[in-house]
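Give me structure tokens for this 292-residue protein.
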Amino acid sequence: MWCRTAFKARILKIRSLPTALIGRDAIVRSAVRRIVQEPLAAKVPEITAVFWVLKLLTTAAGEATSDYLSTHNRIIGALIEIALLLIGLWLQFSCRRYFAPAYWFLALAIAISGTGVSDVMHLTFGIPYGGTTAFWALVLALIFWQWHRREGTLSIHSITTRRREGYYWSTVFATFALGTALGDLTATPLHLGYLTSAITFMAVILIPAIGWWRFRLNAVFAFWFAYVITRPIGASLADYVSKPHNISGLNFGDAATAAVGVIAVALLVAYVSIARRDIQSPPRTDHDSKGP
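Here you go.
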């Protein structure tokens, strides 16, 4: 009797499999449809002072988090970084409008994974910091070239299609990896140390700022110039705070620095989500002359 009941239960389970599979297939198709649908509005925030503060915080938090994940088990750390990146991509590309938590989660995930990739090239494969810096500078230049060739603009106010969004996030990844390599290059082989490196890049970032403000420097060029330089500023500051005294740091620790940085990012993202002052206005007709 028990065998007959178990057999009937198994038959019913087998018969229900097509329905379950159809349900799962519908879920997968729905998820894919959400990702491939074109955006309804610009998918990146307006450029404000808060944007630059968040950019520096994600940079610093990403640097410290990646360093912490690589201190114990590099394989597990790498898997965590990949998982965060995939989650961030899914969240961001599932949205059809700018949504601050999704955007900044992906930015933080790229800050972590971009640092990890750049560090692996040096620590695992032995490529000098000068070599990794040149490599990522070339990658960034190629992305910019292809993006402009296909779309005719690099303006963030034009991020209203999936393809442009793909170019945008590819650029962001390359800038994070480049900034990590560049910051390490100035701090270690060039013997500037972390704090002096940060101060040096703070001086460099004044070039696009003053150029745009006083001398009508192209807004798109000024934006991406500043965007690239914020990475080594944030990374150098994070390393200065977290690293031991014997390598010019304050010895606060990677874990503590990462925790403070992530909490600061979360609080500021909560603020911009409530205030909603970083949502872009409708597209402009002349991106390159009026804004980035």
